Amino acid sequence: MNNMIPQYLVDFDLSALPMVETDVLVIGSGIAGLFTAIKASGQQRVLMITKKSLLESNTRYAQGGIAAVIAEDDSPAYHLQDTLVAGAGLCRSEAVEVLVNEGPDGVKELIRLGTLFDLENGELALTQEGAHSHRRILHANGDATGYEIVRALAVEVNEHPGIEVWDEHFVVDLITDRDRGECIGALVQKDDGSQVFVKAQATVLCSGGAGQLYRYTTNPDVATADGVAMAYRAGAIVRDMEFIQFHPTSLCYPGAPRFLVSEAVRGEGAYLRNVKGERFMDRYHAQLELAPRDIVARAIVSEMESTNSTFVYLDITHEQPEMIKHRFPTIYETCMRYGLDMTTDWIPVAPAAHYMMGGVKTDLSGESSISRLFACGEVSSTGVHGANRLASNSLSEAIVFGRRIVDRIQSLSPLGSLQVRGTSTASVNMNSKIMKEQKPISERRLRLQKMMVRQVGLRRNGKDLQKAMDKLQQELQFFDLTLTHKEELEYANLLTCAWLVTSGALHREESRGAHYREDFPARDDIVWQKHSLQQREQAIVEELMS
């Protein structure tokens, strides 16, 4: 199978571009970007670039919380085991050990930086989510944990003299040195369309995930796979892109957005019911509503199909109204805005694309296969999540590996002088040939999103995946266009990521974690307990578990 996206390697005359120099370039402003910038700013100059604002990221919408061992009856060993089980045999145990052992100190640092987690009787309040054996989820303002973390970190970033922030800027592509093969910075487009070369001693991708690949997603509009696509074009290895997590419960109601209804609602006792009013999770898993997300999501789809419905219900009406309002104020108020009262009404929900488990392959210091290029947060593949992310591990992963990235950056030798020319695969400088009958970007994007839902969604099969590949092969002619606007560049990134996800899904002929093949419904540890690696101009490579 040909899994290679057309590339147009471009030599840049760097002297022809305005240049800005910094020590550390951070691309993205979620928890990974903010925390990494703060840690790096102690000794180095930091430039943070965000295509919207500091407060617009996936982190902002994270409701449930952050997982860390706090309770006396809990331990890193329990957290390790829960993560490995959820990851369905593809977690990197060394990375998970780093997470569970260093996560509690990371939480303490968030508190030191001003994050106000909820308290009960003067102690940190903890809740339980799906596939966790203990209550270890810290939360803030009931169900607005992500927003509180971003708020606190953004205040610190804005007040720090060593951090410069460029809002409303778009990173077009990474720039690598032609001779040394190192990442030397990025090509950045300003809101007026002009471009600048940012030279950096180290570049950190913190650009989030790819939720906008799918028509139904809990992700904001900014989640367009920019980091993965840029890293892939630069020649970095990406890993396990076939594993896309669908959150089981997003609001599914006429006129309402696909608003995330946190897993913590089920953690606090909510039931799932089909449209007949029947609880059904006992037919699918012993942990009922707290089964791993992939199992719950597919169970919901099965119930929707068997009852000829487009949703199921989430029912927490048996709990005390005051508890519901206090614990889930954001969800309660959002539902009320559309005439749904959580305390008395069953809430219609359905699965939606939520999290990308794969990403830019990194080592335990967060460094990619390209020297001086790092990745942190959802854009990265550290090995923590395996085939299925354990709930609330992602925020913890961002702070743990953000700190490790900074430690590694501080050990780098100076970049030194550059050649006059650098190499990139910048979309903005691709072939200028104009295609006939160009369709609007909005139409192209919606068509891609619908295709991904239908053919590369929760349940997959070889026939549909091949159809998707054929359609993507035709659409790759889009790369023959001159791309200048942000919407065009975002679509190019989504198209790149769609190819990576689809080719990875077609290659993996088994079902594991979030990747489910109807034509290969069994998990096959003998043949497939290994990672899928994809790199520019190379076929998929299988990496055995270490």
TrEMBL record:
Catalytic activity: L-aspartate + O2 = iminosuccinate + H2O2
Family of the protein in this entry: Belongs to the FAD-dependent oxidoreductase 2 family. NadB subfamily.
EC number assigned by the record: 1.4.3.16
Matches recorded under InterPro entries: FAD-dep_OxRdtase_2_FAD-bd, FAD/NAD-bd_sf, Fum_R/Succ_DH_flav-like_C_sf, Fum_Rdtase/Succ_DH_flav-like_C, NadB, Succ_DH/fumarate_Rdtase_cat_sf
Protein name from the UniProt record: L-aspartate oxidase
Domain FAD-dependent oxidoreductase 2 FAD-binding as annotated: residue spans: 23-395
Cofactor: FAD
Keywords, in A-Z order: FAD, Flavoprotein, Oxidoreductase, Pyridine nucleotide biosynthesis
MF annotations from Gene Ontology: L-aspartate oxidase activity
Compartment annotation: Cytoplasm
Pfam families in UniProt: FAD_binding_2, Succ_DH_flav_C
Organism: Paenibacillus xylanexedens
Fumarate reductase/succinate dehydrogenase flavoprotein-like C-terminal domain ranges (all copies): 445-536
